[in-house]
Structure formats: C-alpha cells, structure tokens
Amino acid sequence: MEKVRRKPRLKSGHWFVILALAPIIILYAVLRFIPIVQTMYISFFEWDLISAHKPFVWLDNFKELFSSDTFIQSIRNTSLIAFGVLIFSVPFAVIIAAMLDRGVRFKSWFESLYFLPYIMPMVPVAVAWRWILDSNHGLLNYFLSFFGVPAQAWLIDTNLAIFSVVMLTVWKMVGYNMIIFLVGMKGISKENYEAASIDGATGIKAFWHITLPLLKPITVFVSTVTLIQGYNVFSQVYILASDIQGAPGHLVRVLVYDMIESGFRFYKMGYAAAEAVILFLIVLVLTALQLMLLRDKKTSRKGMKR
Amino acid sequence: MKRKQKLTNALVFTVLLIGALIMIIPFLWMISTAFKSVNELNTWPPSFIPKHFNFDNFTKVFQAAPFHLYFLNSVKMAVLSSLAIVFTSLISGYIFAKYRYFGLAFLFAVILATAIVPFEIYMIPLYLEMQKLDLLNKFGGLVLPYLVLSFGIFFIRQNVVQQIPDEVMEAARIDGLSDWGIFFKIVIPLMIGPMSALGIFAFIEAWNAFTWPLLVVGDQSKFTMELGLAVFQSSFTVDMTMISAASLISIIPILAVYLLLRRHIIESISMTGGK
C-alpha cells in the first residue's frame, strides 16, 4: 500500500468521504453484501415464494439436494463441462500465446481475432453454434464427412451434447486466457532466455524449461477463473440444449439451470438457495486452492506487467 | 539453421491462421445464413456464399418480433449501466486510493472479496429484493444490479495510485482547492483514459447480460436484445435465416465498438488478470 500523508482540514475531508462514499456503499450493501448473506440464510428455510408460512428446516434442503438425482446429475454435468473447458482452453491458450509471443506477421490481427469471441454476447454465438452443430444441415457434420465420419447427433446424444457445450465454451474463453498468458510472457525478461541459449536451450526446450515454470502463477490464475466460469455455465446450455434440457432424463442439466428451475418454476426458494450455497462453496474451495498454490511461488510474480 | 527458422515461421503462421479461421467461422456462417433464402438454407452441400443475397430477412425480423424495442432497451440498459459504473467506480476508487481514514481499507477489502462471488450465487435474494421494491418486470429492476462493479473500483484505484502523485494533490490543496475541487478539477481530467476504458467494458458487460433479464423481465416490450433473441430462436415459426439476421443485429454494437477500440478493450480486460 502506498503511503499517503495528509492531515490538513480533517473535517472537510471526512465530509467528502462520507458524502461521496455513502450512496455507493448503500448500493453495494443492497446489491451485493446483503444478497450474498441472504443466500445462506434462505437456504435454511422451506419457502414457496408466496405463502407467509416459512418454516426453518435447518439442513433439510441440503439433505434433499444430495438425495436428488437431478441435482447429482447436474453437479456431474457441470463438473464435466468445467474440467473439460479447463483441459482444452488452458493448453490451447498457452500454445497460441507462445506462438504469438515469438513474433509472427500480423500478430495484432491474430490477437484481435482470437479475442473476438470472448467479448461477444453468448446468445447469438450459441445460436450460430447450434446451427453449425445441427445434425442434418450442420457445417460440422459436413466438414467431418470429408474424413469419412458419419453424421453425429451433436445436440441430441448426452455425451456429445456435453462435448458440444465444452467446445463452444473453449472457443469463447480461449482468447481471454491467451491475452492473460501474453501479458505474462511479456513480463519474462529476455535475460532468462539469453542465459539459457548459452546452455543450448532454445525454441521448444526454452519454452518448456523457462517460460512454463515462470508462468505458473498465471496458469494458476487462469485455471481458477476458467473453472469458476465453467461451474457457472448457463446461457450456452440454455440455447444449445434447450430441446433436451427439460427432457425426462435431464441430460445436459447444469447447476445454474437446476437452481433457476427449482426456484422459479417449482418455487422452492430454500432449495434453490441451497444449490447456490453449494456453488458458493465450490467457488470458495477453488479460490482457496488458487491462493495456496500461489503463496509459495510469490517471487515469480514480480516479472508481471500490470 | 536459417532454413529451419523459415520453416518454423511458416508452420507457426499456418497453425495460427487455421485457429483464427475457427474463431471467425461461426460469425461468417451467421452472416452467410442471414442473407440466405429459406430454399437455400436446406441445400446440401451447404453454400458458403449465398447465391442470391436476400435482404428481406432483416425487415421480416422486425415484423416477426419487436426487435427495435429490444434493441432500444439494451441500449438504454448498457448506456445507463456504463455511466453509473464509471461514476461510482471513479469516486470510490479515488477515495480508496488517496484517503486513509478508519475503515476504508476494510471496506475496500470487503468489496474486493465480493468480486470473486459470481452473480449466479446471489441472484435469488436479489430477485426477492426487487420483488419487495416492486421493481420486477420494470426497467429499474433490470438495470439496478448493473450500477456497480467491483472490478471498476479496483481498476480506478489502481490507476489513481499509479498516475496521480500525492504532490499534485498537495499543490492543489495549497492553491486552496477543497476535496470536492480536487476531485472535479484534478482527478477527473487525469482519469479520462481509464474512465473510458471502464465505460466500454461496462457497456459490453451490460449488453451481454442474459441470466438476470431472463429472471426479472416477463413483458415482451421490456425484453433486452439477448433475451428477445433467446425467446425468438426457440419459437417454431421462425427459420434459421431470420434467427441469424436477428443474431447479427444483436452483435453489431459490440462488433462496432470492438473494431474501433480493440486495443483499448484488450488492454483493459487484460488488467483483470493483473490482480
């Protein structure tokens, strides 16, 4: 923290801070602090949104959750998607960033193109993907037919549908991860590579022994962000798999979908809040893991450009 | 050695090019489909460039659903959210950077801590609050959660710390400026760059919002572009050419902003990793 020395006219300074900050803090309290705490509070009650009767049920909602097949199914699907996105998007992002970082013609064009999907709204791009994945007229099946692959029912088969969600999400996330890796790579000083090239480590060897280890904090950060976003997956599933979302088997049901349905279709507010608490716990565990992994490698962070 | 270098360069370029193609194919396909006629839609093999450019889809879309209203609602929401986030972040980010009163560090830590909590976790209580305030199905309820942004406060604080030295403020104070005067006459002019970066970021975030509009808005005339498109594409009476035309309309504002300001956007978003 920067040291700030100011003492004159304490009174007017106080008034400035109070008057300027109070409305914002009130907004924050109403829009963030209170709802976050309330999620936990509501999860201990059984409540249908309308009736005044609102019994305190302690942990019953959580017990009900873990005996519900649809909840277990949605946790399973969400985890598959989150980790699926992780194992594809992070390595792809590192490789793309490394290729851009070594210098290539039209570098900034490539950067812009890879980043494009990340800032685009999810609904239209998911709609476009849905059309690409269409089993009868889809571009993907057309492309695969050149390799002798028979037409696949991408959005109808459970496993393929989950894979499709992963594909779309990787496509959308990889640009963000790439940018963060690029920032990290710019921060690695040239001296490291010069020293290594004397020992004969260049190219892929240098990448493996110098770049990757120095990027560890960034990799941890990017992986955590990717996993957290993966666990919050919703819009793309809503669009891609809306045909099968409500199907009896709840094929590609994900956590947030299950939460919204419990809350706003079946009016089980306490139950839905309990699902939100589970999601919160997942996020907390992931964040704690990130902090733990970063703590022992603090030194390698100093090269990062802010 | 030199030949090998050249070969590697060519290989890297090719791989990057293929990757870039994969990145834009969905957009190209969306554009292509938006200009097709229904007959051409189902031809096999699919045609990449429409044989006859059909502009009708873009007029038919507005007759099929009130997309002009959706568009207007999205613009209203994104502009208001952007302005509010710039304002709230600016003033609080500045205070957290330059004032050391009791409790401020704690407040800042709490705000940073809430930044890691995804929206989906507290959206149910937020919905209940809006219900109590009678803001459901109203523009106010739609936009309210988008008036503050933890990242914005962090971003402005960081910029103030880096760009406005204490000496500048001391000098202004000696010149007789009050705290308000310093904020309006010194801080705001120096923060125009970060403010616009944050404003663009917030605009994109609000334009892309989907889950919250889905929860709070029920009345078609109050739909945002995202919600309107999601409902539109699920209807059985419209075909893919019209859906693609509507999709294209919904990404045009973001695409325009991106084409104009992509360097700034990429830079400010890469700051999110600088935490």
UniProtKB/TrEMBL annotation, chain A:
The keyword rRNA processing does not apply. The keyword Mitochondrion does not apply. GO terms for biological process: transmembrane transport. Coiled coil: none annotated. Keywords: Cell membrane, Membrane, Transmembrane, Transmembrane helix, Transport. One of its GO terms (cellular component) is plasma membrane. Pfam families: BPD_transp_1 (PF00528). Its main location: membrane. It is found in: Cell membrane. It is a multi-pass membrane protein. It comes from the Bacteria. Residues 75-290 form the ABC transmembrane type-1 domain. The chain crosses the membrane at residues 12-34, 80-100, 112-132, 162-185, 206-228, 271-294. Belongs to the binding-protein-dependent transport system permease family. This is Sugar ABC transporter permease.
From TrEMBL, chain B:
The keyword Disulfide bond does not apply. It is a multi-pass membrane protein. One of its GO terms (biological process) is transmembrane transport. Residues 71-261 form the ABC transmembrane type-1 domain. Its main location: membrane. SUPFAM superfamilies: MetI-like. The keyword Secreted does not apply. The chain crosses the membrane at residues 7-31, 77-97, 104-127, 139-156, 182-204, 242-261. It is found in: Cell membrane. Gene3D superfamilies: MetI-like. GO terms for cellular component: plasma membrane. CDD domains: TM_PBP2. Keywords: Cell membrane, Membrane, Transmembrane, Transmembrane helix, Transport. Pfam families: BPD_transp_1 (PF00528). Belongs to the binding-protein-dependent transport system permease family. This is Carbohydrate ABC transporter permease.
